[in-house]
Every structure is written in structure tokens, then in C-alpha cells.
Specification:
Layout: H1 2-10, H2 12-30, H3 34-46, H4 49-61, H5 67-96
Helix pairs in contact: 3-5, 4-5
């Protein structure tokens, strides 16, 4: 318990930033009209390509003996790819609604 309190004390500024990000995120998302919510979220999912790049870098830097890093990196690549593809699929379906019908 003492180690936890020491860690919280030494990383207090980081915790404040995280709490501020949570409240700002809730405020921003809460003010988005429901019509725009799905396209914005699908676009945000597409940004997860950064996660894929980061996971590939982690897997490339990890030694072959570091099985947890390799497994987590692989899972991050797979799940990040699913998120990116899903974001593009949802965005495409939303844009399809606004195209003129033949």
C-alpha cells in the first residue's frame, strides 16, 4: 500500500492530466449532435493506425525470449487492424446514405 501511495505521489501531475483529458473528452463528445456522432467515431477508429505502427515497433524491438511483449504486440496489431477496417466500413456506409440514388 505504501508503494502505491509513493507511486501516486511521484506521478501526481500525470494523474491530473489524465483526469483533465477524461473531463474534456466527455464535454466534447457530449456536445456532438447524434447525427454526426457515428461518422466522427468511425473516423476516430481509422486513426488507430498509429496503434498498429506502435505495435509493430514494439514487436520489432522485443527480443525473441520476451513472449508477453510479442503476444501483446500481435494482439494490438490484430485488434488495431480490425478497428481501422471497421472505421472505414462504417464511414463508407454513412457516406453511402448521402449519395444520389440511380
Amino acid at each position: 500500500m505504501e508503494r502505491l501511495i509513493d507511486w501516486l505521489g511521484s506521478h501526481q501531475d500525470m494523474l491530473y492530466v489524465v483526469l483533465l483529458m477524461v473531463f474534456v473528452g466527455i464535454e466534447v463528445i457530449g456536445r456532438v449532435p447524434s447525427v454526426l456522432h457515428t461518422p466522427l467515431m468511425s473516423g476516430a477508429n481509422a486513426i488507430h493506425g498509429v496503434v498498429i505502427i506502435g505495435a509493430i515497433i514494439v514487436m520489432g524491438q522485443a527480443s525473441q525470449d520476451n513472449i508477453p511483449a510479442l503476444v501483446l504486440g500481435f494482439l494490438a496489431v490484430v485488434l488495431g487492424t480490425l478497428n481501422v477496417v471497421g472505421g472505414f466500413v462504417v464511414t463508407d456506409r454513412m457516406l453511402e446514405m448521402f449519395r444520389k440514388k440511380k
